[in-house]
Amino acid sequence: MKSPSNLDEMLADAQTGKYRNLVLVEGEYQEFLAKVLNTFIKINPKPSVAYYFHPWKEGSKRRLAWFESFLRPVDVDYSSSEKYLGSTFDMVIIDAIDDFRPSYISRAIETVRGGGLILIYTDKLHENKLYKSTLTRNGKVADLFEERIRRKLKEHRGIVYYHDGELLLRPFSSAEVSKPKRTKIGRYPELARLCYTDDQVKVLDEVDFLLEDGKKNY
After folding, report:
1. What average pLDDT does the segment 160-169 reach?
2. More confident site: 66 or 189
3. Of 5-9, 66-70, 102-106, 165-169, which one has max mean pLDDT?
4. Which one of 118, 134, 147, 188 has the fewest beta carbons within 10 angstroms of its own beta carbon?
5. Cα dist from 62 to 32, 101, 124, whole Å
6. Picking from 66-80, 181-195, 204-218, which range would have the lowest pLDDT averaged per residue?
7. DSSP 111
8. Rounded CA separation 192/184 (Å)
9. What angle, 0 to 180 degrees and rounded to 10, lies between the N-to-C axes of helices 30-43 and 7-17?
10. CB atoms within 10 A of CB 205
11. 10 Å Cβ neighbour count for 184?
């Protein structure tokens, strides 16, 4: 199977392979964001979407309203984002204009289901971020986290990085997704066949073991 070669193919192939893509848009973001959103909606016309941001920052609700012309997202305040851990969405949009805090980013990313899309946008990745004001030393702030993000974008696949007109595509392929081989194990093979990975089948087997008669559940 041929690997994806453009944005449309990447997003469609992720649905097939049930893996996630990450899109990071930096700089002039609105035109490219519109392209990404329209492409995703063609593939998944009614996606479940979460939008992470600081609703009290000036301009943040105006940006949310722009996205609402494409989608109907659940708006999530960064400060209460831990309440959504355990939830899953087809798409997560991360407004990184005002903040790019590692804990907020990781929480949001973990709520995207397989086949879904992580979309992060910002004007400048390393400037005017709230958390950085607490990290100053001698009046300066290191950009270690931001530079690591940029470096990892170039090392990993399933990545789209758009920076002021320059586009980096590093596609993954559904042909590389390993299929579970243990679907005949366990009391409920019909459920095991719904699993995407061997690890999921293993969890199903272990839950089955705990539920056997005579086992104590702790």
Report:
1. 93
2. 66
3. 66-70
4. 134
5. 18, 21, 18
6. 204-218
7. T
8. 7
9. 40
10. 15
11. 9
State the DSSP H helix or E strand holding residue 152, giving kind and residue range, or none if neither: helix 144-155
pLDDT of 32 above 90: yes
CA 159, CA 194: separation in Å to the nearest integer?
A: 27
Region of 93 please: left (phi>0), alpha (psi -120 to 50) or beta. beta
**56-91 b/e with 16+ CB inside 10 Å = b?**
eeeebeebbeebeebbebebbebeebeebeeeebbb
Spell out the SS3 assignment of 59-83.
Answer: CHHHHHHHHCCCCCCEEEEHHHHHH
Contact (CB, 8 A) for 102 and 131:
no
> Rounded mean pLDDT of 173-180?
78
- Six token digits for residue 170: 């590093």
pLDDT score of 96: 96
Read off the amino acid at residue 58. E
H-helix or E-strand spanning residue 112? strand 112-122
pLDDT over threshold 80, residue 163: yes
Task: Using DSSP, state whether 21 is helix, strand or coil.
Answer: strand
* Cα first-last separation, the chain: 46
Identity at 22, one-letter amino acid code: L
